[in-house]
Amino acid sequence: MTAAVLANNLWVLLCGLFVFMMTIAVGLLEVGELGERVVGSLVKTILITGLAVLVMAIVGFNTAFAPTVGGIIGNPLYGPGLFLGGFSPGIADSWWSVTGAGLRTGTYFLFETAFASVTLALVGVVALHKMKLSAFAIYSVVYLALIWALPAAWIWNPSGWLAKLGMVDFAGGLVVHGAAGAAGLGIVWQIWREEKARGLKVSTPVPYRVNPGWLTLAILLLWVGWFGFNPGSVLAFNDEAIVVVETTFVAAAAAMVSTSITSYLLTSEIFNPLYVVNGILMGLIVITPLAGFVSPGSALILGLLCGPLFVYAEKFVGRAKFMSDPVGLFPGHLAGGIFGVLMIAFFAQNQFAAGSGFPTLPNGVFFGGGGAALKQLGIEILGIGVSVVVVFVLSHLTVRVLAALMRGITTSYADEVETKTGMPAPLV
Amino acid sequence: MTAAVLANNLWVLLCGLFVFMMTIAVGLLEVGELGERVVGSLVKTILITGLAVLVMAIVGFNTAFAPTVGGIIGNPLYGPGLFLGGFSPGIADSWWSVTGAGLRTGTYFLFETAFASVTLALVGVVALHKMKLSAFAIYSVVYLALIWALPAAWIWNPSGWLAKLGMVDFAGGLVVHGAAGAAGLGIVWQIWREEKARGLKVSTPVPYRVNPGWLTLAILLLWVGWFGFNPGSVLAFNDEAIVVVETTFVAAAAAMVSTSITSYLLTSEIFNPLYVVNGILMGLIVITPLAGFVSPGSALILGLLCGPLFVYAEKFVGRAKFMSDPVGLFPGHLAGGIFGVLMIAFFAQNQFAAGSGFPTLPNGVFFGGGGAALKQLGIEILGIGVSVVVVFVLSHLTVRVLAALMRGITTSYADEVETKTGMPAPLV
Amino acid sequence: MTAAVLANNLWVLLCGLFVFMMTIAVGLLEVGELGERVVGSLVKTILITGLAVLVMAIVGFNTAFAPTVGGIIGNPLYGPGLFLGGFSPGIADSWWSVTGAGLRTGTYFLFETAFASVTLALVGVVALHKMKLSAFAIYSVVYLALIWALPAAWIWNPSGWLAKLGMVDFAGGLVVHGAAGAAGLGIVWQIWREEKARGLKVSTPVPYRVNPGWLTLAILLLWVGWFGFNPGSVLAFNDEAIVVVETTFVAAAAAMVSTSITSYLLTSEIFNPLYVVNGILMGLIVITPLAGFVSPGSALILGLLCGPLFVYAEKFVGRAKFMSDPVGLFPGHLAGGIFGVLMIAFFAQNQFAAGSGFPTLPNGVFFGGGGAALKQLGIEILGIGVSVVVVFVLSHLTVRVLAALMRGITTSYADEVETKTGMPAPLV
After folding, report:
1. What is the chain A residue with the closest CA to C7?
2. What Å distances lie between residue B122 and A416, B23, B118, B338, CA to CA?
């Protein structure tokens, strides 16, 4: 390997490892917000981590990243990806779509598998205390093999139909955060249907029981994970990858301050740990789809916008009576992710995008992009619309089928049993 | 340094850091399985970490990795390893046995010290609640300077007698896991002798008190650590190192699923956190000795074999009345490590082994190895037999001497004191 | 980028990430020593992390590292550092003072920001349970923009007046640890003034409530962080960076053993977790200012000196009635940091210093440095004296102003509220 190929593989592999840690960090976040004895959170995220590696190694890496069938889905039988090449992989071969940077199949596999895994972990936050873990495990297999793969195949796979239209989504404002929100909505709706059938008027809220140690550890691991998530998404170790470290960290920090101040102005409570932590997360989510396209100065502005965005999104979403969203999937990931994708058309600067591998992305509206920027906005909106609808529908259909097979997906007594015994309730 | 030497040192150094974290992760695993207030677990693993660095820096790195005296033990007075070169190390020199990859002494030292440390941490799981910490500290010094060094000098040191016979053990199925099991057996036997002398009929079991947060964090750190453990054991950053990421992660994931299903079939309890976590560990242990010799396809098969292997090994071992093995050293590390070493003769493929630095390793039985594979099996069995016996005997002799000097190595009241006060009991 | 520039940026960026984790690890250390429900510890360190990134990105990186105005302070308006270059940074440009290694602005920014952040976290340990968090947040902005920057601009910035005199401080014995102690003293004095005004005769001690899990995790993260802290401070990935891994780890291990034995000889209590952990920290602190200038042999000796140093420093400091220092800022960081800086003049060896970028540093007294070493000692003492006084005065003035504006900086009831509710007390 040349020096550049060595550096690219080393970088993306290590970034993949940092992202890999985020799935379990999501479990720790739940525990940090909802109480220490949430066994289900932890078993769930360990399970997701393992299932993601297994399903992606067998077929999911192909359905997302193999050369697509008509731009719609990766060829599941593509040799280098099927069982990771089986008994005779080409160990010195780069994966077809990242040969420019010389990324080996194993490097790219670990990186993207970690993304699929953490997306599913985000979907899973709405399952907490409410959905049978066995149902969620089966859902996970479908999700990893098919549902996650579709937006990835359309947007991140260069042979996908949206990628060919010119849609970009740097590190997954839509492919990860938006899609997780849409998939979660598909589950929440089914939970609400079952709760309504049991006579409930409002979806039972899961109470907050802040555990500061786990909450802190979760935010630390998530921030470290995002060091892999965004800078690694350049898929090479070059000058732009270093700029992405700046844009990512600055947006997170600015959003923390902005969210703290916004919540202080509204509630006169200052430094509520939930807002401090969610502020950081909101900054990281919003910058994700454009971290590789913007300057540090723009990242600062985008971070400052996050405070009002999160606080109002939370207020608005919090009113929906059918919502079972204990750790803020919808106001945070769905709203934040989509907002970030839309901002591409306003804040992008071609000089940065070129370093991330998108030399044809036009400047945004604020940087003289004009008509080209508005056209880009249209493409992004199209991609958001199609992806959100398809993911929502497939996710909901999956849980409907599971509900029919398993006499419902919800479990109303898990939490009580768990709290009493410290061991998971019977989950079948 | 050339690009390749830079990449090799950077890779092995970072992998060493990840492995370094595993010692303390073993302490967190104990806490996760046996209860949160186990101060002794944590002090023990911090102590092991520090002692490992110190003893290895003074002499242990030499006894394992310096040019051997007659193939038996590394020369303790070899200049570059004694006190790490003292006041005038050759700072630009590679360690003699890894000059091919250009690994500097400091790089190789950190990596192997982390291995010695985590091996001792595994031995130490049987000491929990039962062995005086002061006795274990003295045992640790002997272990690091001598007992750990012997299999390492024989198998991993190219001048060792087993290495010269052709024995291989990629990342330590025998040198780490098997040897830890054998050493632990030497301690457990002495604990049982003292318990019998106090009139006990059965070794007092240490009760499970699952703490899901620490258990989850432990498995996360161990999995991340194994990213260093196996891929780093190529001792270079090359194409094969990336394949080892695949084999390691796939085996872990497959074993998690296989163990969960096996335990469900036997107990109809699903997603017990202890089985989910132990499944992952079992996959990682079994793949360790051959991760650098096999394809991703074989890793998947090996992972699937782990479920039945672990569940039955645990059942079998659990019957022994003299066993004090709260977190599964014997069914997990001893059985799993040795099983993995034996599988080398069945699953190895020369094309992978060559990338790991073993171009003469024959294909396994399943890949047409025939007679050469059977000969390899014989060599591996010989190495296992000699290593397990020698380590067991030396470990047991060490604790016998300590027991004579300290009026026994067991402490019957530590746990109670600790539980009440939250501070360690007097341990002298 | 050339192979060396790739390796240098990759190394320093990753080391920066490890150091970045240390700020929050300090919060976990507080929780590990003082009790699990200390919400304030965690909110405080998350807040510091975010503020550090934001303030450094806007101006603090410049005040410390831009070309200085007369050797006193970095030019706050230096283009590449102001808002990290704003909307059009030179993304392929190295920062002016580290062009030799080719470190990009983003690389150097992340690394040094992590240092500023963890220094402030150390200052913040004295604020625990006593200082209003809102006052500490405002203090933090002043600290990051000005107080931290001054010693950094004088010593680490090659255009600083102390650097030009020949003062060296490898990874921050004075710039980080000594300065944190001096700044903390400025706060503690004000706390004591307010406590006295309330009629107290002795500063209320904060009681120890060891939580072994968090304490262990904290020491693990801090040790891993120090892998970035010291070896990264070579600001390049070269042979010397690998030697610094050796000196750092060996000093920590030797200090752990030395502190355990010293405390055993004095109290006949062995393996007190607080001493084991503080021993490791003391070794890491003492080696910090000279890790890149000494041999592994010298590091071992320096580590062994730490036990008596820490135990006596703690005894001496513990007597001061005005001290509010729950986790040992003064005996550990202030005394240890300054001791380490002084040892430069005794243990330095030019062959190592050259690899760290200081080819003109003379050998120490113990290595034949003679008059040149004594002259170096004088320079170091001068730098310590000026830095400690200036930082102390500025820190104290800042809290005096804040006390005038906010009717005192102390809060006497925060802890009680926090303990009862598990949520932070009103801190405005």
Report:
1. A7
2. 36, 8, 6, 15
pLDDT value at residue B209: 81
Q: What residues are paired with A69 via a beta bridge?
A: A73
Specify whether the CB–CB gap between A357 and A170 falls below 8 A: no
* HSE-CB for C223 with a 13 A CA cutoff: 29
Rounded Cα–Cα distance for residues B59 and A386 (Å): 64
The pLDDT of residue C206? 75
H/E/C letters for each residue in chain B? CCHHHHHHHHHHHHHHHHHHHHHHHHHHHHHHHHCCCCHHHHHHHHHHHHHHHHHHHHHHHHHHHCCEECCCEECCCCCCCHHHHCCCCCCCCECHHHCCCCCEHHHHHHHHHHHHHHHHHHHHHHHCCCECHHHHHHHHHHHHHHHCHHHHHHHHCCCCHHHHHCCCCCCCHHHHHHHHHHHHHHHHHHHHHHHHHCCCCCCCCCCCCCCHHHHHHHHHHHHHHHHHHCHHHHCCCCHHHHHHHHHHHHHHHHHHHHHHHHHHHHHCCCCCHHHHHHHHHHHHHHHHHHCCCCCHHHHHHHHHHHHHHHHHHHHHHHCCCCCCCCCCHHHHHHHHHHHHHHHHHHHCCHHHHHHCCCCCCCCCHHHCCHHHHHHHHHHHHHHHHHHHHHHHHHHHHHHHHHHHHCCCCECCCHHHHHHHHCCCCCCC
For residue C209, list chain B residues with Cβ-Cβ distance below 8 A: 422
Please state the φ and ψ torsions of residue C168, each to the nearest 5 degrees: -130, 150
Residue ranges for chain A with pLDDT beneath 50: 414-428
The C-alpha of B99 sits at a distance from chain C's nearest C-alpha, in angstroms, of 14
Confidence class for position B421, pLDDT limits 50, 70, 90: very low
CA dist., res. B301 & res. C173, Å (int): 53
**Interface with B, mutate which of C14, C239, C347, C356 (most B CBs under 10 A):** C239
- Check residue A417 and give its pLDDT: 44
Q: Average the pLDDT over each of B110-114, B245-249, B417-421, C334-338 and give the range with the smallest value.
A: B417-421
Q: What is the mean pLDDT of residues C259-275?
A: 84
Residues 6+ away with beta carbon under 8 Å from B200: none
Extract the tokens encoding A70: 């008509």
Which of B15, B242, B265 to substitute to test the interface with A, most A CBs within 10 Å?
B242
Closest CA to C19 of C170, C230, C276: C230
d(CA A27, CA B215): 12
Tell if the pTM clears 0.90, that is, is over it: yes
Rounded alpha-carbon distances, angstroms, from residue A291 to A7, A107, A170, B246, C108: 21, 21, 7, 29, 19
* Pairwise CB contact (< 8 Å): C243 & B91: yes
CB of A297 less than 8 A from some CB of C: yes
Q: What's the pLDDT score for residue C420?
A: 44
pLDDT for res B193: 93
Q: CB-based contacts of B154: which residues, under 8 Å, 6+ apart? A: B71, B72, B160, B161, B162, B163, B167, B383, B386, B387
Apex CA C164: angle with CA C158 and CA C167, to 5°? 95
Q: Which residue of A has its CA nearest to C13?
A: A242
Binding partners of A (≥3 Cβ pairs within 8 A):
B, C
Name the neighbours of C, counting chains with at least 3 Cβ pairs within 8 A.
A, B
pLDDT at C419 over 60: no
- CA torsion, ordered A316, A321, A323, A325, to nearest 10 deg: 70
Q: Do B249 and A53 touch (CB under 8 A)?
A: yes
User: How many other C-beta atoms lie within 10 A of the C-beta of residue B416?
Assistant: 11
Instruction: Pick A84's closest partner by Cβ from B3, B246, B355.
Output: B246
Å from A87 to nearest chain B CA?
Answer: 5
